Amino acid sequence: MGLDEDALEYHRTDPPGKIEISTTKSTNTQRDLSLAYSPGVAAPCMEIDADETDAYTYTAKGNLVGVVSNGSAVLGLGDIGAQASKPVMEGKGVLFKRFADIDVFDIELDEADPHKLVEAVKMMEPTFGGVNLEDIKAPECFTVEERLREEIDIPVFHDDQHGTAIISGAALLNAVDIAGKDLEDLEIVFSGAGASAIATARFYVSLGCRAENITMCDSTGIITESRAEAGDVNEYKQQFASDVPDGDLADAMEGADVFVGLSIGGIVSQEMIQSMGANPIVFAMANPDPEIGYEEAKAARDDEVIMATGRSDYPNQVNNVLGFPFIFRGALDVRATEINEEMKVACARALARLAREDVPDAVVKAYGDEPLQFGPDYIIPKPVDPRVLFRVAPSIAEAAMESGAARAEIDLEEYEEELEARLGKSREMMRVVLNKAKSEPKTVALAEGENEKMIRAAYQIQEQGIALPVLIGDESEISQTATDLGLDFEPQIADPTAGDYDNYGDRLHEIRQRKGITRTEAADMVERDSNYFGSVMVEQGDADALLTGLSHHYPSALRPPLQVIGTADDVDHAAGVYLLAFKNRVIFVADATVNQSPDEDVLAEVTKQTAKLARRFNVEPRAALLSYSNFGSVTNEDTRRPRAAAQLLQDDPEADFPVDGEMQADTAVVEDILQGTYGFSELEEPANVLVFPNLEAGNIGYKLLQRLGGADAIGPMLVGMDEPVHVLQRGDEVKDIVNLAGVAVVDAQQE
């Protein structure tokens, strides 16, 4: 099937459409229903009657946006009417929810009169926290937005006007820097004079461009003062009428610094690009076909053409989804009365700043593993970058508060953490650990320091103040890679071949001399294997923690720290633990990486160490020793081990947490089973520490929970070592390294 057939099948599959309404509170019992509706619902009604602002406290108003359209100017389709526009408006709702966790009612109004549209939306003001106008043709859209902004007390935003303006404005801020030009000196030419073009031109002036340097062309040609005087253009176009002779688009583009296309495809030639000034900036944003193709524009000049389009298959896509979800998120969360110019400028500047940061591996993978690094081919972030939410929304909220548009004051640091938590429970849990790490950073040695991911992780760790990273490896290679990656930092490097590290070889020999290692072999191991070097570095107190394993099999990466650092004095066995974060639950899974066939003593030890780890995440542990048996329902050697481990822990005064077993996995995590069938259990609530009976079960279990249960995984985290050591999985992403660095720092703080 082609794209059209696929899209039709996508939309008609049961249930038809793309959105639904779901409840956010329990509705399982009679009491639930009496709270949700009659008679309990009267209480919040009376509170709101006494104070209308309580609607934000007792209803979903504060997270509800109305997407309103009459279908008179649907992108690429034109005036198709209200009913036919509904799939587009539902799609807008999907984007609001997917990117900013905002709920939407799509409202399609069969009305062409802009004044009647205004009256209809005004009557719906009590329903919504904000209104997103969509696909209303010009010039009526200007009237509708302007009147609504004046006459209702919630944010109103016409995305067709302002979305492209803001996103291309962010691109312009970065393009100007790369081209070595100044905003106020730019000669800018617009192709197109509709709502989006006029709003974009206005916005560029807000960013610092000069209105007198903007030349706007419509289908007739340059919008000149003579045309304005003759009544040839409407009032909205007149504000950009130029005092120049009449001419066409080709005339306007001669010597220009910036071309902004918001018109139709294929109307710009290579000769027109060649006529522009040095290092031209070309934003050809007509969809689906740009005013000039990407390859054509690039090939037209020997100097660098900085090019952006509206397409996802070329660099620098100007995509409105980078703006409206996050603008409304910030506006709703401070109960803003409007979305003003200061808030729009804040959005553009936040996006421009984000494009200069290192790009997460997940984003790179989503775009085919093509390098994404600030420069001519990367001047705006990608829509799937999760950081956009907690970079842009706080900037919007801050601008709203500073400009007087906000009705609620919020703490911006706390707000950023709340936004990050919206992206998943794992982020919320890691924020707890990272904040602890930042309170008292420690030195973390990074083995395999020449690896690009390790270098990028070191940059982020240092920039965020999580730790003091030390990269182990060849100093010149690491420094060159950091430069090539455009990372603006001077990493601390420990080069085993260049520094005075003879004492490391001596110490390794001392530790391993009765294991067949000679002094010469020890010196060679320290110089050639960063795992041994890093292990000795931590053992000697020159670093507080070690991360390794990025390019090694787990057992071979774990062996050096076990040989050199070993387990803690009161611990005989290390273990590997995963934190699995579900939507409303967190569990710790052990042992998933180290002990193949643990006896009851090892199981008890692993449980105690995992409980300690849980507390570092501010989680009070409740441990279950898992089996295929429930409390003696099956008795054999396999079931006796977890049963005996549970008894050891219950008899141990140092095990100051509830623990029980042996029990089946569903017994451990389902409250009805635990309390109903097995009310005698020591666990009064479902377990959050699950200790598997052997390595095979643990590894299988955590991977099934992650892949089929939709859990986010953090780890593996190594517990029981004498000094903080964590062994990464081969192929881990930069964020995984940063997260484990945070865990290692908190481990070191406990030491």
TrEMBL record:
Task: Look up keyword ATP-binding and say if it applies.
Answer: no
Tell me its cofactors: Mn(2+); Mg(2+)
Q: Which Pfam families match?
A: malic, Malic_M, PTA_PTB
**What biological-process GO terms show up in the record?**
malate metabolic process
Q: Which UniProt keywords apply?
A: Coiled coil, Metal-binding, Multifunctional enzyme, Oxidoreductase
Q: Which residues cross the membrane?
A: none
Q: Which InterPro entries match?
A: Aminoacid_DH-like_N_sf, Malate_Decarboxylase, Malic_N_dom, Malic_N_dom_sf, Malic_NAD-bd, Malic_NAD-bd_bact_type, ME_PTA, NAD(P)-bd_dom_sf
Malic enzyme N-terminal domain location:
16-149
Q: Which residues form the Malic enzyme NAD-binding domain?
A: 161-401
Q: GO molecular function of the protein, one example?
A: oxidoreductase activity, acting on the CH-OH group of donors, NAD or NADP as acceptor
Coiled-coil segments on the chain, per record: 398-425
- Family, per entry: In the N-terminal section; belongs to the malic enzymes family. In the C-terminal section; belongs to the phosphate acetyltransferase and butyryltransferase family.
| PANTHER family in UniProt | NADP-DEPENDENT MALIC ENZYME
Protein name, entry field: NADP-dependent malic enzyme
